[in-house]
Amino acid sequence: MSRLAFSIRDYGAVGDGQTLDTPAIQATIEACSRAGGGTVYIPAGSHVTGSIFLKRNITLYLDAGATLLGSLETADYPAVDSHWEGASHKTHAPLIGGNDLENVAVVGRGSIDARGAFWWEMLRERTLDRPRPRLISFGRCTNVLIEGITLTNSPSWTLHPFNCENVTVNKVTIVNPANSPNTDGINPESCRNVHIANRHVDVGDDCVTIKSGMERDRERLSPCENITITNCTMVHGHGGVVIGSEMSGDVRNVVISNCVFMGTDRGIRLKSRRERGGLVEDIRVTNVVMKDVLCPFIMNLFYGCGAWGSDKISDKAAWPVNEGTPRFRHVHLSDVTARAVQYAAAFIYGLPEMFVEDVSFSNVAVSMALDAEAGDPAMAPDMEPMQRAGFFACNARGLRFHNVEVTDHLGPALILTDVEDVEISNCTTHTPNQAPVIHMKDVAGAFVHGCRAVAGTGKFLHVEGADSRNIALSGNDLGRAGEAVSLAQEVRPDAVSE
After folding, report:
1. Per-chain mean pLDDT for the chain
2. Cα–chain-centroid distance for residue 184?
3. C-alpha–C-alpha distance, residues 104 and 194, integer Å
4. What domain count does the chain have?
């Protein structure tokens, strides 16, 4: 450590796991700031602290063996102006935080145990006076680095940069109990240029959630953009990488690569609903392995959580398009394997007035868990439970399925309803059942080519709906199917060409 480091021991920190060291730690930060910046050094030991506030040009360095323990007194987390789930609130201050700073870092080989259990209990008992603190939260900061440390037992969201630019989270371990409420791993909100790499996350909510605020603050919102997530393991939690549902300020330019998701309920999840507005676009996912997930891929514009019972949210008829109409487009997923899937291979559900647009799956293999139970893949109202279902898409335009394989599913491998402009190439299933491999209803414009039916296939393609049209098959190997194509009575004979 540099001789320019300011040790908290020199300013009165005890580190015995009992004494409140907040005043000593904050005094060290202030002294470092008066000197123009530098490193605040936390040596080995257990240091109890409430909220501490960094200054610009300061690195908080936790040495190996150093642990910050969150105070168990709510008074040690003062009320501050902040944000919670996209809206402005008075909240308890984070354990480590700061606003309007530049060149700040929390690094080292030490750990921070926020001891959040008493906050979770107050939430369950409804005795909280304001939203819980985050573990680390920075607002409107530039050049933020979180590296090397281990974070555990966060009161709520673990890492929350808000309106920040150039944020790097590297080699960080985050562990919160599976039953801890809203303890997301990292939630970049309305940030630009975020780099998340080499992390291990095991939490009680989403591992990574990308947000940009809610509709009630639309006038002041800014997008969350230019996000890279790579070389990470995500364990448990409600989702591996989630976008939304607070995305009213837009989310764009997100790359997710070289990750492993284990038991994360959902894998890649995009969620929103009417009134929220905003645009999610240019999302790329590649080289991902998942296991024991309920549903690997979700793009849902009927997200009901927080709005159950709302006719506007659940109505399947088209509504007028306005600033409250959300939109998903340009989402491309490739080289993904998902094993032991429970509910469905994918769930894509656009609005009838705003289709999900330009979505592709390439080199994707999904196999279902043979002991899977039925359930709700995406929290969409008025949906029947799904069990080992294939790729489900409704209200979508510009779908591409290339070299997609579904195994051990029940029902069709592809279920397409109210879809326009779909291409299916080199797709197959090795476990055909009594259902058709592909089921289309009211599909306008489809090209199926290079596919093959394995032995035991009954129907390969079944088409329903009076609005089905312009469906073409070419260059497929369907000789082992009992029936290549079947049409429901209402389908015009010229709707399908072979």
Report:
1. 95
2. 10
3. 15
4. 1
Phi then psi dihedrals of residue 354, to 5 deg:
-150, 90
Assess if residue 94 is contained within a domain: yes
pLDDT at 215: 85
> 313 phi and psi, to 5 degrees?
-70, -35
Q: Which helix (H) or strand (E) holds 65?
A: none
Q: And the tokens for 124? A: 């369950």
Confidence of residue 1 (pLDDT cuts 50, 70, 90): low
Mean pLDDT across the stretch 284-307?
96
Total-model pTM: 0.96
Beta pairing partners, 64:
none
User: H or E element: which one contains 28?
Assistant: helix 22-34
At residue 301, what is the residue type? L
Q: Is 423 left (phi over 0), alpha (psi -120 to 50) or beta?
A: beta
- Exposed, middle or buried: residue 402 (CB in 10 Å: 0-12, 13-18, 19+)? middle
139 vs 83: CA distance, rounded Å: 9
Would you list the DSSP string of 216-237?
Answer: GGGGG---EEEEEEES-EEEES
Cα-Cα-Cα-Cα dihedral of 111, 113, 114, 117, to 10°?
160
Check if the beta carbon of residue 163 is closer than 8 Å to that of residue 191. Answer: yes
- Of 11, 18, 67, 69, nearest to 43 by C-alpha is 67
Active site residues: 205
8 A C-beta contact, residue 359 and residue 311 = no
Q: Is residue 463 domain-resident?
A: no
State pLDDT tens for residues 156-195: 999 999 999 999 999 999 999 999 999 999 999 999 999 9
Q: Is residue 86 scored above 80 in pLDDT?
A: no
Q: What is the CATH number of the domain that holds 94?
A: 2.160.20.10
- What value does the mean pLDDT take over residues 294-312? 92
**Segment 349-379, tens digit of pLDDT:** 999 999 999 999 999 999 999 999 999 999 9
User: Does the residue 428 lie in any domain?
Assistant: no
Structural domain including 340 reads 6-369
Report helix, strand and coil shares of the chain as percent, to nearest 5: 10, 55, 40
DSSP-assigned letter for residue 33: H
Cα distance between residue 313 and residue 302, in whole Å: 6
- 209, part of any domain: yes
- Give the separation between CA 99 and CA 55, rounded to whole angstroms: 9
Nearest one of 246, 243, 259 to 198, comparing CA atoms: 259
Q: How far is CA 282 from CA 250, 323, 355, in A?
A: 11, 20, 16
The pair of three-digit structure tokens given for residue 102, joined into one six-digit string:
């530049």
Strands (E), 342-482: 344-349, 356-368, 389-407, 414-425, 428-429, 438-449, 459-464, 469-474
* Owner of token pair 């080519």: 449
Phi, then psi, of 490 in degrees rounded to 5? -80, -10
